[in-house]
Amino acid sequence: MELVEKILGLKRKRNAVILAHNYQTPAVQDIADYVGDSLGLSVQAAGTDAEVIVFCGVRFMAETAKILSPEKTVLLPDERAGCPMADMVTTDQLMALKAKHPEAKVLAYVNTSAQVKAECDLCCTSANAVSMVRDILKDEKEIIFIPDRHLADYVALETGREFIVWNGWCPTHAKILPEDIIREKELHPKAFVIAHPECPREVRSMADEVASTGGMCSYIREKDADEFIVATEVEIIHRLKKENPEKLFYPASRFAVCPNMKYTTLEKILWSLEDMTQEVHVDESVRIRARRSIGRMLSAGERQYGVI
Questions:
Q1: Contacts of 160 (CB under 8 A, 6+ apart)
Q2: How far apart are CA 204 and CA 211, in angstroms?
Q3: Tens of pLDDT, residues 4-52
Q4: What secondary structure does DSSP assign to 124-143, as a single string?
Q5: DSSP assignments along 73-141, one per residue
Q6: Which of 28, 84, 26, 21 is closest to 269 using CA atoms?
Q7: Which of 90, 94, 126, 182 is the most buried (most CB within 10 A)?
Q8: pLDDT tens for each residue of 142-167
């Protein structure tokens, strides 16, 4: 409690807002002003009068917050908190692929670095990727989809489109296997299965619903059911239990843990606010171009944000 009180006191002193991704530990989620997915949190923070954003997530998320709020100081409590999937595509690699397909439009999942976003035409989230393809890119003959091959596969099945797909994936969602769903269904036969689009097709095909983290929260809140098997990172269950205390939740796999999300602790949040360290910077020329690709998505009227 003393640690929490110190953080809350410094938050007021710094005029800060604390954002926590759905995959953060329960202690970090509980101290945050807002808990959600990365883009939704960044948009929410941009609308506040806070001068400092403490982003409890991974680097690309903090970069997105800086892209949308360049006037605010953005802190990432642990600089080691990266995203393996975002690291699977570099600017040089993307430029080489674009050179091979000069007429193609590039659709980037928000799980990419600011530098990569700056070289893309449009961003998407796991919640709006289908609508971005179906509504905004419907007249494009070629689309490069980066970096997640599983999200690209999900969107392809939903839209009937073919993509030039980058071979990236989320190591955490890759830990969820079909046999995990089979096991949990045998243990909980009445439970509904809900899976994230980053899961492989074999897992998604066994789900009653495929949804982003934000979509999962909405679906479970509105669904007239008591039990759910959740195929995504395990920590989201903390939020689901808080919002639906009368319902039961079972992780599809207890091994579906993102280690990079766990770098953030209460102590590191305190230290970052005390010393104002681990500030995230985005080169202004990169920020402007990356903001353009995000802005095209936001201006399309989509407000159902959702990421990992």
A1: none
A2: 10
A3: 999 999 999 999 999 999 999 999 999 999 999 877 887 888 888 999 9
A4: E-TTTHHHIIIIISTT-S-E
A5: EEE-S-TT---TTGGG--HHHHHHHHHH-TT-EEEEESSS-HHHHTT-SEEE-TTTHHHIIIIISTT-S
A6: 28
A7: 126
A8: 999 999 999 999 999 999 999 999 99
* 21 DSSP 8-state letter: E
Instruction: Report the CATH fold assignment for 173-251.
Output: Rossmann fold (3.40.50)
Rounded-to-integer distance, Cα 40 and Cα 56, Å:
13
CATH for 2-82+261-281 (3.40.50.10800, 3.50.50.60, 3.20.20.220, 3.10.100.10): 3.40.50.10800
Between CA 219 and CA 214 the distance in angstroms is 9
17, β-bridge pairs: 53
Pairing of strands 227-231, 209-210: unpaired
**pTM score, two decimals?**
0.94
Residues in contact with 236: Cβ distance below 8 Å, sequence separation at least 6, in sequence order? 22, 23, 213, 216, 230
Q: Which of 49, 1, 45, 58 has the alpha carbon at shortest distance from 19?
A: 45
CA–CA separation, 52 vs 45, rounded Å?
A: 9
- Please check the confidence at residue 306 and state whether its pLDDT lies above 60: no
